Amino acid sequence: MDGLTGILRSQPEIALFLVLAIGYAVGQIRFGPIQLGGICGTLIAALVVGQLGIKLDDSVKNVFFMLFIFALGYAGGPQFFANLDAKGLRLGLLCLVEVVTVLALVLGATAVLSLDQGTAAGLMAGAATESAVVGTATDAISKLALPLADIQQLQANVVTAYSITYVFGLIAIVVATSQIFPLLLRVDLRAEADRLWKTMGGGDENPAAASATPEMVGRVFLVTVGRGRTVGELMSILGGHASIERVVRRGQQLNVEPALRLQAYDQVLAIGRRSMLVNVAELLGREFADTTAFDAVVETTEVVVNRREWFGRGLRALDAQLPPAVQIVGLSRDGHVMPLLHEVKLQRGDVLRLYGPADDVARTLPLVGDRVVASTRSNISYAAMGILLGVFIGGFSVKLGGIPFSLGTGGGALVTGLAFGWYQSKNPHRLSVPPDALALMKDLGLATFIACVGLASGPQAIALVKKFGVALPLVGVAVAVVPATISLFVGRRLLKLEAPVLLGAIAGQQCSTPALSAVQNAAGNATPLLGYTITYAISNVVLPLMGPLIVALAGLVHAAK
User: Fold this and answer.
1) pTM (whole model) above 0.85
2) Which of 37, 103, 213, 453 has a 20 to 30 Å separation from 117 between CA atoms?
3) Where are the domains of the chain?
């Protein structure tokens, strides 16, 4: 054991990757609907390994946190700005409830329990299940006019209080949103979700089940019974649910026009909905497998919605304007797959997946927006300039009510990430940072930051646990549940939201993906996502900015006692 400790102390980078490996393995363990996740698992592993007195250079922690916070803003920028409209601000009222109530509860606990600034910030981060607050608060503490030993102690308290309250806050919000709140609303959540699904254009099929075969398909037919018919006659019979895309006669492709009359043994490619093409053989002739003359005719393309005329309009309106052979086969918003319902309202930055003939899809793109550039190359210069500008902005300080307040390097990088991500959404044809690279920046950046802080905080963690005992977990549950309960009644009585949308929005204001998963399981379909994406986009930006504020306010409360 002494030999292992010596190796870890002399080469702390080994301890770092050991913590990441153990932490993410622990985070994948599921207890019913509860899963700690890799970040919380990493923190627990770091606190345990940190008892051996292992420390990494502070520059490692700072660099990885800036990568994380910039990527967080970059990924959320398009949806954050897209939701600054009437509907988004309406649901944003729940985020306001979250921020104000959490601040009030944490400051109340600070006064009653005599919490220091670090413990107060950690309580807020953990109970609100927003890991980014750990970074912004830790950064704010580093700028306090205190001895280095005191700063290190406060930063250790942030991490320890976060690790304690996160687990209890997570369990509380998952159970509340999926089990308790439907009872308080006196609704059958599954029945409400099913009714909403059908109201918005969903079919009677199980909405949670994925189709084993694509809805949009292409079939090649050998003309026998259909000889003598014109393309125009066939298109009229198909009624816009399918189209004739290619006609090959004796090895030569013909121009497909309504007046074109089919002859015996013509090869015809029809593209459309599977249910319609099942009966096309009765109109044309038998289907055959030799499709070599029709290679590379259809494609699946992603397009970002940025044409103003579609903002706030439903998928039904857009679908009616598409060519018959082009179908919307997917919709994603802020990285979440949205249900394909007729009445789902489009927002700026939504990504649609279109399926159909290459020529028709190419003609459709300008109607909707811009093609998403599918590239694995990252514009490092663009990202580095954003982080550099964020550090510069974070250095400015202003006084709010006599309290010095600055965004810090974390808050500054978050703001520039928002701006750079929004610009990229407006110009998707330009090479920038692809989603997979952003996901790696976020996951690796935050996990490494948490591991570094946890390793440094390990020796002080036990002292904080002994000092407050069960008080912190109990306060953590209150900080998680009270704002959610207030939002429940505000959303139902004032905003008149449907139960599935409201519960999804509450999970979003808490930035809790596990809570969303639990609500969706209880609802039986994806309708809670309609509320989740808006509040998640807003809270994911606003809550991290509260890190420096809670440090400043808790300092005033602590000094006044």
Assistant:
1) no
2) 37
3) 2-197+378-560
